[in-house]
Write a structure and sequence with these properties.
Blueprint (H helix, E strand, L loop, with lengths): L7 E4 L3 H13 L5 E5 L10 E4 L2 E4 L5 E2 L3 H9 L6 E3 L7 E5 L2 E4 L12 H6 L5 H8 L14 H9 L1 H16 L8 H4 L1 H10 L2 H11 L1 H11 L2 E4 L5 H12 L3 E13 L2 E8 L5 E6 L1 E4 L3 H8 L4 H8 L3 E12 L11 E3 L8 E5 L1 H4 L8 E9 L11 H16 L7 E12 L5 H13 L4 E3 L9 H18 L1
Parallel strand pairs: 1-2, 1-13, 2-10, 7-15, 13-19
Antiparallel strand pairs: 3-4, 5-9, 6-9, 7-8, 10-11, 11-12, 14-17, 14-18, 15-16, 16-17
Helix pairs in contact: 1-11, 1-17, 2-17, 5-6, 8-9, 12-13, 13-16
Bound molecules: flavin-adenine dinucleotide (FAD).
Length: 473
């Protein structure tokens, strides 16, 4: 067995693993920190591709600026001046309704109706549907049992608002089945509004009243969402450079097993290009990999914990990025993007108007859009051939935004089993997982699988894991 030399070993070099390494190396400057990353490049799913004047995000294209963890890390890394907000002219979303793109009512935030006027006038809802949304404030609160997003939204806002508004907005974020997506883990903030204020309407009004400074501070600078002039990969790339400067070691290798050795840990990996297994001792171990991967590593050690981890389901999706000449797209693309209700019977979940949102995404006189296909309710799409996917995306772009002619740029990013699904019961499951992990000194988990898939939440999870193991070293 290798000697336990007090190393912090982090498995997974996605944003969660990198954030954990940053926090761990800052907390104890002398301590050895080693990251094992199977893919050989830091950043995990985050990646930016630049080609012939196109700048394309492979997965995430922005992050929520209002949460502090992202902005604070970015500022520490000296990247603040590279941040860009969504173009103020297009800070709105469209939703596909009866063959045309209609704006989401102003002030409507995923589930919370913010303004009466915009609900009363939206062409998205029938007169009865609008009244039903306005009646939300009188729907009694429910405090027992966890509901799915679909059950909660239908109960509070009515079926029509769920189908035409909430379902497509939620699919654009989680690519999930709304009948299984759990309110507590996925939309806890809205559950809280109901619990504390009796209705989403009252809760949203109170939120806007009580936190104007938060909304304004983030909103005035970047809007709700921010990105980087040269793409989202700027963040993991700079973070990895900072870590190397601090002496954090990066190893390319897929960890296959973890074991308990006396008071510490050992991980076994197969290093790239080598037939041999390599063991590395660790005083503390942070698993920043997808939950089922962590589950497989821990299966022999703690079968109950492993089974909780492997029970977290993942959905796949595909991002097809298409570039067109501006003149070949009929729609003005005067929004951040378009979400598509399932009831419309189309194949795209959403279209992000990348070159409208951020500068420098397409060459002059061209536009870039990213079509999201697949998701939990359409798992077969991830398996389509490249040709089939491009054909499908082009057909959708033609139908949804009037794109004609041949795309001048195309790129496919397949994300099989990449999005953790926070199903009903997820929050309880995560509590059980955290309890089980607490029984293993020096072990922590981090990543999108547990308490938020968004970039700031994933950064927070890495930092929390580093704090947890530092307290136990
Ligand atoms: C298509 C898509 C679009 C998204 N859009 C947004 C967005 O716009 N805004 C936003 O905030 N969030 C977005 N997200 C979510 C966000 O990007 C992710 O939740 C986050 O980046 C996940 O980080 P992570 O470190 O938890 O996981 P990952 O990025 O998956 O990293 C895990 C790492 O572990 C490595 N690994 C796996 N197994 C092993 C092993 N056995 N040994 C060693 N290494 C291993 C992998 O290679 C990988 O690098 C999006 C996600 C996807 C998929």
């Amino acid at each position: 067995m290798p000697e336990n030399q007090g190393e912090v070993v982090i498995v997974g070099g996605g944003l969660a693993g990198l954030a954990a390494a940053e926090a761990a190396s800052a907390a104890s400057p002398g301590r050895r920190v080693i990251i094992f990353e199977a893919a050989g490049r830091p950043g995990g799913v985050i990646g930016t591709v630049q080609e012939d004047g196109w700048l394309v995000e492979r997965s995430a294209d922005c992050f929520l600026a209002a949460r502090p963890e992202g902005i604070e890390l970015i500022t520490r890394l000296g990247l603040g001046d590279q941040l860009i907000g969504v173009n103020p002219q297009v800070r709105r979303a469209l939703v596909w309704h009866r063959g045309r793109a209609v704006p989401v009512p102003t002030g409507f935030r995923l589930l919370a109706p913010g303004r009466i006027g915009s609900i009363l006038t939206t062409p998205l809802l029938s007169p009865a549907g609008r009244l039903r949304v306005l009646a939300e404030r009188w729907v009694p609160r429910r405090t027992t049992g966890e509901e799915s997003l679909q059950a909660f939204a239908t109960r509070r806002l009515g079926r029509e608002a769920f189908e035409r508004l909430v379902q497509p907005l939620a699919a654009g974020i989680w690519t999930a089945d709304p009948a299984r997506l759990g309110m507590a883990a996925a939309c806890g903030e809205f559950l809280q509004l109901e619990r504390e204020h009796g209705s989403l309407w009252a809760g949203e009004r109170a939120r806007l009243r009580n936190q104007p400074q938060v909304a304004e501070a983030a909103g005035a600078r970047y809007g709700q969402f921010a990105s980087f002039a040269s793409g989202m990969e700027t963040l993991p790339a700079r973070l990895a450079d900072r870590l190397r400067d601090r002496g954090v070691e990066f190893r390319t290798g897929r960890i296959e097993r973890v074991a308990r050795t006396g008071a510490g840990w050992s991980v076994t990996s197969r290093l790239e290009g080598s037939p041999q297994s390599v063991e590395q001792a660790a005083a503390a171990l942070i698993l920043a990999v997808p939950a089922p991967v962590a589950g497989a590593m821990l299966a022999a050690l703690d079968p109950a914990l492993a089974s909780e981890l492997t029970g977290i389901e993942y959905a796949g999706s595909v991002v097809v990025s298409l570039g067109f000449r501006r003149a070949d797209v009929a729609h003005p693309l005067d929004a951040a993007g378009l979400v598509v209700p399932r009831s419309a019977g189309r194949r795209a979940l959403a279209v992000s108007f990348s070159s409208s949102k951020f500068p420098g995404r397409a060459p002059a006189d061209h536009v870039l859009m990213r079509l999201f296909l697949g998701g939990a309710l359409d798992p077969a799409t991830v398996e389509l051939s490249d040709r089939g996917l491009v054909e499908l995306a082009v057909t959708e772009a033609r139908g949804l935004v009037g794109a004609t002619g041949t795309p001048r740029f195309q790129r496919i990013d397949r994300w099989a089993s990449s999005m953790p699904q926070y199903h009903v019961g997820h929050a309880d499951r995560v509590s059980r997982i955290e309890q089980a992990v607490a029984a293993w000194p020096g072990l922590a988990l981090a990543g999108a699988a547990y308490r938020g898939v968004g970039i700031p939440q994933v950064i927070a999870s890495g930092q929390a894991a580093a704090r947890q193991v530092a307290a136990e070293l």
